[in-house]
Design a protein that fits this description.
Layout (H helix, E strand, L loop, with lengths): L8 H9 L5 E3 L19 E3 H10 L10 E4 L2 E3 L13 E4 L2 E2 L9 E2 L2 E2 L4 E2 L2 E2 L4 E2 L3 E2 L4 E2 L3 E2 L4 E2 L3 E2 L4 E3 L8 E2 L4 E2 L3 E2 L4 E3 L2 E2 L4 E2 L3 E2 L4 E11 L4 E2 L3 E2 L4 E7 L4 E7 L4 E11 L4 E7 L6 E5 L4 E7 L8 E2 L4 E6 L4 H9 L7 H13 L3 H16 L4 H14 L5 H21 L3 E2 L10 H9 L11 E2 L3 H30 L1
Parallel strand pairs: 1-3, 2-4, 3-5, 4-6, 5-8, 7-11, 8-12, 9-13, 10-14, 11-15, 12-16, 13-17, 14-18, 15-19, 16-20, 17-21, 18-22, 19-23, 20-24, 21-25, 22-25, 23-26, 24-27, 25-28, 27-29, 28-30, 29-31, 30-32, 31-33, 32-34, 33-35
Antiparallel strand pairs: 36-37
Helix pairs in contact: 3-5, 4-5, 6-9, 7-8, 7-9
Length: about 500
């Protein structure tokens, strides 16, 4: 085995342990994970060049499995493994790196940096056959893992990433392929977390994570591909969540989430395909919600979480849960700017019909006609008001009966108190105020009363009003019936 002659005692311990895969722990009993700036002595300091020589030259002992397993060391210099092919697992936990490790396009069996402190990480196009563990890591510069390929899982639970003063995202996982889960509950990112174009074969767990990028995109996950679920319960985000074009066949779980991006879009999941979207139990979203052009099988959203601006153009869903009265759901359709979106009303109608709530479906259709009325010309709006008052655009047919009975009562009383004179006294039938009023109100049916009597004075004006009202009622009822039949 080749030995470097100027090894320090600490480095000698690591060098001798490597061929046998033994762990070297430099921590004293009760030591806490290292913090930046800690002045560790030579007894726990290892040069990165020594670690590189171990990994690249790969000294072996027959019958043993080599591994680099170091805990609690200070690593000086840059660990340069660019394009290296490393057969041994690399485990550098609870370590403090003085310089940014460079693992660009390296091929590793396993990488463990749990609870270590790093000034940054360059690992673009990295290839790892097993898992990558960065549990509890503290990275104080850009962590670049874009384009990495990890056959196993990526563990980031409790990790902290920040890139103060940098012009790039704090954590870059864009175009990454993960063969199992992305496990990051409790992770904190001060800056942008970029997941654009990433593919995760298992689940994504961001429960209790804190993402903050004020005035910008906190989570950029456009075109994210997840084969299972995204669990983001109790996540706290200050900045935009961007999920445009993502594919999540399982559940996007945002229960008890707190999303805040005032004055801009807080959550954009447009043009996405999602099995289930859960928006329940959390604070009211601060900022706009955009679900335009998305396909969601089950949309679970509480009205209390919805912000003042909700964009639902061409959104399709099969089930809307929990079941709420139409009066609680309709306001979200009115928040889609000033533009009239008929598809949003049709989709909500279909959701109510899917569960057999036809009354709620009719209420939605009535609201649709009223919203459409605002887009018409003045005479179209006037006719709309008449239809609404008369029969509720055909969705309130009993209203026409009420109008008819009210007008019938008015006419019957008025003509019953003072009969109109007969046109031909010797040929006129006996006067009946009820059927005379019906003759005036019903434009098609005749009872022989209207033609036999000629009212005068204010009775004549009343007859004109009843005739006109009758025609309006008949027309609006016909239009409403036609509309109702066409919806079946």
């Amino acid at each position: 085995m080749t030995v470097i002659s100027d090894l320090t005692p600490a480095e000698t311990r690591v060098w001798r342990a490597f061929p046998r895969g033994e762990s070297v722990d430099f921590r004293a009993a009760g030591d806490e994970p290292p913090a930046p700036g800690d002045d560790w002595g030579a007894e726990r300091t290892v040069r990165a060049s020594v670690l590189r020589a171990l990994l690249v030259k790969a000294p072996r002992e027959e019958g043993e499995i080599a591994a680099l397993a170091v805990t609690g060391a200070r690593i000086t210099g840059a660990l340069e493994l660019r394009h290296a092919v490393i057969e041994a697992p690399v485990r550098l936990s609870d370590c403090h790196f003085d310089d940014v490790p460079d693992l660009y396009a390296a091929q590793l069996r396993e990488l463990d940096l749990s609870r270590s402190v790093l000034p940054g990480l360059t690992s673009g196009a990295l290839r790892v056959e097993g898992v990558v563990r960065m549990t509890g890591c503290r990275v104080r510069g850009p962590a670049r893992l874009g384009g990495a390929r990890i056959s196993g899982a990526l563990f980031l639970e409790g990790a902290e990433f920040s890139a103060p003063g940098a012009s790039e995202p704090a954590l870059q996982l864009n175009q990454m392929a993960i063969g199992e889960d992305l496990w990051a509950p409790g992770m904190r990112v001060d800056g942008q977390l970029r997941l654009t174009g990433a593919a995760v074969a298992g689940r994504v767990n961001l429960q209790d994570a804190e993402l903050e990028n004020l005035g910008g995109i906190a989570l950029d996950a456009q075109n994210l591909q997840v084969e299972a679920h995204v669990r983001a319960r109790c996540v706290r985000v200050r900045g935009r969540v961007e999920l445009r074009g993502s594919r999540i066949p399982g559940r996007l779980d945002l229960l008890h989430a707190r999303l805040s991006h005032p004055g801009d879009t807080a959550l954009r999941a447009s043009s996405a395909v999602i099995g289930e979207l859960w928006l329940r139990g959390g604070d009211r979203i601060e900022g706009a919600l955009s679900l335009r052009r998305s396909q969601i099988e089950i949309l679970t959203v509480e009205p209390e979480m919805l912000p003042d601006q909700v964009y639902l153009g061409n959104l399709t869903y099969t089930v809307l849960a929990p079941h709420e009265p139409a009066a609680r759901r309709l306001p979200m359709l009115d928040r889609d700017g000033e533009r009239y979106e008929p598809h949003a009303y049709e989709q909500l109608t279909a959701a109510y019909r899917h569960i057999g709530d036809d009354d709620a479906a009719r209420l939605v259709q009535l609201a649709k006609q009223r919203r459409r009325r605002a887009t018409l010309t003045w005479y179209g709006r006037l006719w709309g008001y008449v239809q609404d008052a008369a029969v509720g655009y055909g969705f309130r047919p009993l209203r026409a009966v009420a109008w008819l009975l009210s007008l019938l009562a008015v006419g019957s009383i008025a003509y019953g108190l003072e009969h109109p004179r007969p046109v031909k006294a010797d040929e006129a039938p006996d006067f009946n105020p009820v059927f005379y009023t019906l003759d005036l109100l019903l434009p098609v049916i005749g009872f022989g009363q209207e033609q036999a009597f000629a009212p005068a004075g204010w009775h004549q004006w009343l007859s004109y009003a009843l005739i006109i009202t009758g025609w309006i009622l008949a027309t609006t009822v016909a239009a409403g019936v036609t509309r109702s039949i066409s919806r079946q």
